[in-house]
Amino acid sequence: MTAPRRDSRGQRSGNVPVQEMGEMPGRQALLLGALALGVLMLAMQLWLLTVALELFLSGEGEGIWALALVSGTLFAGGLLARKPKVATRAR
Fold first, then answer.
1. pLDDT of residue 11
2. What CA–CA distance (Å, rounded) separates 10 from 19?
3. Can you tell me whether residue 12 is helix, strand or coil?
4. Among the listed residues 71, 69, 36, the one whose alpha carbon sits nearest the alpha carbon of residue 50
5. Deepest in the core among 11, 48, 77, 88, taking most CB within 10 A?
6. Does any domain span residue 88?
7. Looking at beta carbons, which pairs linking 70-79 to residues 24 or more positions away fall under 8 Å?
8. Is residue 49 a contact partner of residue 74, using CB atoms and an 8 Å limit?
9. DSSP letter (8 states) at residue 25
């Protein structure tokens, strides 16, 4: 454990840089949530493509384009999703 920061007058300073705070609280929950959302989107896309292929092979091709559009939207959403900017400890 380190001693608290002190300014030039010997008093405690409450402003600690982010690099010295260590791991940010909630970082693991944020990353696990993003991973769960990505896996859910992938599972939905695979399910939609499976249903569309089954409809196509059975000769009922009316609903295929709507399913392909939703699947493409999920794919585009996955591409546009950005990595969250999480502060990390300097090494």
1. 62
2. 22
3. strand
4. 71
5. 48
6. no
7. 71/45, 74/41, 74/44, 74/45, 74/48, 75/45, 77/41, 78/38, 78/41, 78/42, 78/45
8. no
9. T
- 48 falls within a domain: yes
Q: What distance, in Å, lies between the first and last C-alpha atoms of the chain?
A: 17
Q: For 52-65, what is each residue's pLDDT tens digit?
A: 889 889 988 787 88
Residue 67, domain member (yes or no): yes
- Determine the structural domain holding residue 52 and report its residue range: 42-83
68 inside domain: yes
Cβ count within 10 A of residue 69: 11
How many helices (H) and strands (E) in the chain?
A: 2, 0
Total domains in the fold of the chain:
1
- Cα–Cα dist 13/69, whole Å: 56
